[in-house]
Description:
This protein is an alpha+beta fold. Among the domains are: 56-134, no CATH class; 141-207, CATH 2.40.50. 16% of the residues lie in helices and 38% in strands. The strands form four sheets. Strands 3, 11, 12, 13, 14, 15 and 16 form a seven-stranded mixed beta sheet that branches. It starts with a helix and ends with a strand. 25% of the residues are buried.
Amino acid sequence: MRQLASLRFWLAVLALAAMWFVLSWLFGSDDSAATPTVDSVTGVEVGEGSTSGATRVVDLIAPIQSVRQGDFLEVGTDGVTSGEIQLNLTANRVMTIAPETLGEVTCERTPRRGDCVVVADLLGEAVLWFAVIDGNGRSPIALPGVVEMLDNRMVRLANGWVLPRSLRVDKKGCPDEVTTMDQIIALYGAEAVATFDIQLQQVIRVTCPAT
Length: 211
């Protein structure tokens, strides 16, 4: 009788262990095994699981001419918008940002006449993510340095933004022996400055830091 009770005890322990293993397998998660999403246009890894961190494939950079009256161009502490925002970009184009859209606002000036610029990741006309940064009222604008050359004439900036580049990126203020983008990236990386032409929607120039 004592042996039978002992056998039943160990069978119960094994059953509980097997149940724990199955539940862990079904409901457990491992962030390190997350599979990144690949942008269908650029082939760049984005989102959870990306090896490059918070990558944003930028589809549009445009000066903000004005904000719809009554709208508040701000993002909450949770990193999303609380209400709908409409930005007037040109006479014929209005960007509508839905509530609870991921974004960031660093431009402290009144967003009018290009003093602030919107950077957006789009799906059609829908805004998936946006940032509002300082502008200069005209093109071009200065952005963080290029840290990686990508396929399909794309570059990754130091802040994770992925943007188109011109076929030939001009170099400015670089030593005579520094003639290629690969050299600039290796020597300066984030310390350089990328210049983005809003009309062309491309990175057209990289400026080396003063030495």
